[in-house]
Automatic annotation (TrEMBL):
Organism (species): Paludisphaera mucosa
Name of this protein: DEAD/DEAH box helicase
Keywords per UniProt: ATP-binding, Helicase, Hydrolase, Nucleotide-binding
Pfam families in the record: DEAD, Helicase_C
GO MF term list: helicase activity; hydrolase activity
Residue ranges of the motif Q motif: 11-39
């Protein structure tokens, strides 16, 4: 995202030769200094180049491609001129909101979100009235194509946002079917947190001499996030969580669990003692998910209990705390979890609850992020029982890694 202005709004964007209406929109939205990916990405996109950008969430990716898309729109034809594909309904909705904000001074720009979980007739009516930018999940976009309600003949700009995530959840065949239907030539902008061999294959096949931008730091974790682990017995995790919430009074907090059932159980227990708690996961009805996310964005729901699948798509700037109530099965999920906080340059705090038998998964996380996570002692919650293996694993890891870090 773009940082709030101090004075002379949008002055940092003037060197990009943006239109007066865009500069006014940036000023009204109190957008000021371009983030690194925006400073690099926007000029190249405005030149019509294919761009392959590597950047994490929370770095301003949406504005990086949204600003040039709006600037490059021409007179409306039969169908949209730009299509943006995203992995989840939640991310699609966030992109629509952000682009509408950027286009607030362009009454002639129409944007439509295409995703499942809502009546398709509403989307069909919007498409029939004419739109300029379509934002959707691959499955629903294909549905509209097959129904002949989405015409791709006027598409000149294609954006693949969080491409790695779309491939992870099996959207590659759908993405390729859509890309094959887009007229040539066209501009393609691909954004991904990682550039895997699969991303390379996709770029080689569907992009023309792309300019590659790596705006992702080597460290998997975000520097502005304070990370701590807390040793706690499994039967006292709930009590510890309530203690932390009351002590820290987070602006907004996401609590991650490993299972959907665990999320529901934890949210139900939390509601008895802490106000403003809701759960979100893949089994929740879409209308309920929308209602929860609307409340979380508005701040009326300050505490959200989530699973990994849904949690990764949450992009809310006000999240001050992330609590890993259950240690993730995959260390990379830890990185995605804590990345929900510390956004837009703000500080964030991430706690990781570690049971007495979980020294090994903690070590795997620290190895991935190349950092020893400091322990946070909470008085009254000392671990009563310790397994024999966990302390040994910790001692071995700390001896090796601290020596390695010290030699750098």
């Amino acid at each position: 995202m773009i940082r709030p202005v101090q004075e002379d709004p949008a002055s940092g964007f003037r060197s990009m030769a943006l239109s007066p209406s865009m500069l006014k929109a940036l000023a009204l939205a109190r957008y000021h200094t371009p983030s690194p990916i925006q400073a690099e990405f926007i000029p190249k996109a405005l030149d019509g180049l294919d761009v392959l950008g590597q950047a994490k969430t929370g770095t301003g990716k949406t504005a990086a491609f949204g600003i040039p898309l709006i600037e490059m729109l021409e007179a409306r034809g039969r169908g949209p001129q730009a299509i943006i594909l995203a992995p989840t309904r939640e991310l699609t909705q966030q992109i629509v909101v952000e682009i509408k904000k950027l286009a607030q001074n362009r009454a002639d720009v129409a944007i439509c979100g295409l995703y499942g979980g809502e009546p398709i007739d509403r989307q069909i009516r919007a498409l029939s009235q004419g739109i300029d930018i379509a934002v959707g999940t691959p499955g629903r976009v294909l549905d509209h194509i097959e129904r002949h309600t989405l015409y791709l003949g006027d598409i000149f700009h294609v954006v693949l946002d969080e491409a790695d995530r779309m491939l992870d959840i099996g959207f590659r065949p759908d993405i390729e079917r859509i890309l094959r239907k887009v007229p040539t030539p066209h501009q393609t902008m691909l954004l991904s947190a990682t550039i895997s061999p699969e991303i390379r294959t996709l770029s080689h096949r569907y992009m023309h001499e792309p300019v590659e931008l790596n705006l992702s730091t080597d460290e998997p974790s975000v520097e502005t996030i304070q990370q701590f682990y807390i040793s706690v017995n499994h039967d006292r995790k709930m009590e510890l969580l309530v203690h932390l919430l009351r002590r820290d009074k987070p602006r907004q907090c996401i609590v991650f669990t490993r299972t959907k059932r665990g999320a529901d159980r934890l949210a139900e227990r939390l509601r008895r003692t802490v106000p403003g708690v809701a759960a979100i996961h893949g089994d929740l009805a879409q209308t309920a998910r929308d209602r929860v996310m609307a409340g979380f964005r508005a701040g009326s729901i300050p505490i959200l209990v989530a699973t990994d699948v849904v949690g990764r798509g949450i992009d809310v700037a006000g999240i001050s705390h992330v609590v890993n109530y259950d240690i993730p099965d995959d260390p990379e999920n830890y990185v995605h979890r804590i990345g929900r906080t510390g956004r837009m340059g703000k500080d964030g705090i991430a706690y990781l609850f570690v049971g007495p038998d979980q020294g090994e998964p903690l070590t795997e996380i620290e190895t991935l992020i190349n950092k020893v996570i400091p322990v946070h002692h909470v008085e009254g919650f000392e671990v009563v029982r310790q397994s024999a293996t966990a302390p040994k694993a910790r001692e071995l890891f700390n001896t090796v890694t601290k020596r390695s870090f010290a030699s750098r």
